[in-house]
């Protein structure tokens, strides 16, 4: 076996979420991943729409790249009927786009509280209702809805689903082939129930996506762009990946890091560093 | 009944944590609270030490003010033996100070991970060990150790105890008169297990302190000073206070808001606003 073959085999499960190298266009992403022997990517709706969904799908196919997930649907906690209907329509469009891109996973960031709302349990129930409304359409299009619990620091303004346990409580109202969950180390590492949640999710085949990023402090203003490069923080990335494997997960490991420090650097250099860190801290 | 009597009765359970009006000296705090008919305060070690612990205790007594809690002990997650011994010594000093101030409650902010550590379960176990080492000394001095779970966004650098459930798992290794928990709405509002935790804590007489602050976004850089004035955010403050009452809690409700916007204003104006918000959103 040559070093290159070893490298390629090491990276067989690695997927690069495009936000990790946001400085790159879609063609740069496709070429950069191919050059490193990385075979899958996670995509975001806005840059894909800008490039053209069909063109993006063709570009990925030409490079032999699998699309592990599309981010994101969700933001459907509005209680106002008109805004709820708008959100559902937008989620149907996201399902269409996922199907066109050939991915079976639409990541859902559920949304926060309504203006002035103080009842987070009710908002979580609206999430379950919206998912119920979307399941038939998603199932028709071969797309699984993947509920992503976000760190509790996002509970009010971005995602009322804060733990894997909460995500599973909603997902388990539906068939596992239609609704799964996202296990993202950044959001779940602090939770002493995360391992039990991973076992529960894996046992029922509901891990739709496994994403990795590290936790570093101080958090920046707004806290959205504070994710750390793999190995720079305190998350037991390998430990959590092993737990998912033990629970029966066989899918890709998607690196999703929002970090302006990485975006300011050369994309190829960042991607090589991600691959190296993946080998050292996740594999 | 006059309006003033109504006012005084309304504020009977209100305690003002001195950090809420950090712009005030201890004498200003004592006078300001007395003027509004507020009968209790929560104090912090650093300003109390600066003023002199005995003098601070005398000042509070002269104004007829009860001290509901002293913040803070804790920060005892160091694995290095010398640093652990230092932390325990500092906690014994905090116990001495609490006893001198006449409060039976020392709030513990447990501390974060050690440099380079990726095992949060081990760090939590070191918290339990340290508390075990401190209990006899605290009990001798009539001081109860009150474990405060902090929001999970502080898990790596400030407090590895993130939920009321985790705090109770540690507290319940000891007698309830020696180790209790702090229920702070800011840290716990997002948790769907918080209500069950409050019932569990109240049922065993372990609610040592009930603190209120509201959750507002965007969070500032570092996230420490982002707490909201009561009623400005999304926390069901009254609902959580009622749950604590139902669980048998009869103690004070301490307002602890770290907010530079409040600190920039006139202290008396802020205190009057806090009292008004307390009536409208907590009482």
From TrEMBL, chains A, B:
Residues 35-273 form the Xylose isomerase-like TIM barrel domain. Coiled coil: none annotated. PANTHER family: HYDROXYPYRUVATE ISOMERASE, XYLOSE ISOMERASE. This is Xylose isomerase-like TIM barrel domain-containing protein. It comes from Actinacidiphila reveromycinica.
């Amino acid at each position: 076996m040559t070093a290159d073959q070893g490298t390629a085999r090491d990276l067989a499960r690695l997927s690069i979420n495009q936000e990790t190298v946001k400085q790159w266009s879609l063609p740069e992403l496709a070429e950069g991943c191919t050059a490193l022997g990385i075979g899958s990517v996670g995509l975001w709706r806005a840059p894909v729409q800008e490039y053209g969904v069909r063109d993006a799908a063709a570009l990925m196919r030409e490079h032999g790249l699998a699309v592990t997930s599309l981010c994101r649907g969700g933001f459907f906690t509005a209680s106002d009927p008109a805004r709820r209907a708008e959100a559902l329509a937008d989620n149907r469009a996201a399902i269409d786009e996922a199907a066109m891109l050939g991915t079976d996973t639409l990541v859902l960031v559920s949304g926060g509280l309504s203006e002035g709302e103080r009842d987070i349990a009710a908002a979580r129930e609206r999430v379950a209702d919206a998912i119920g409304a979307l399941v038939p359409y998603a199932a028709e299009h071969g797309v699984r809805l993947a509920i992503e619990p976000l760190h509790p620091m996002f509970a009010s303004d971005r995602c009322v689903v804060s733990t894997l346990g909460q995500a599973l409580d909603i997902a388990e109202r539906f068939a596992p082939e239609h609704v799964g969950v996202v296990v993202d180390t950044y959001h779940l590492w602090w939770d002493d129930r995360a391992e039990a949640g991973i076992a529960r999710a894996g046992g029922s085949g509901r891990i739709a996506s496994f994403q990795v990023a590290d936790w570093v402090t101080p958090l920046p203003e707004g806290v959205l762009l504070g994710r750390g490069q793999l190995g720079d923080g305190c998350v037991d990335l390998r430990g959590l990946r092993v737990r998912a494997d033990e629970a029966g997960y066989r899918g890709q490991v998607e690196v999703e890091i929002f970090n302006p420090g990485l975006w300011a650097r050369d994309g190829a250099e960042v991607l090589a560093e991600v691959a190296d860190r993946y080998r050292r801290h996740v594999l």
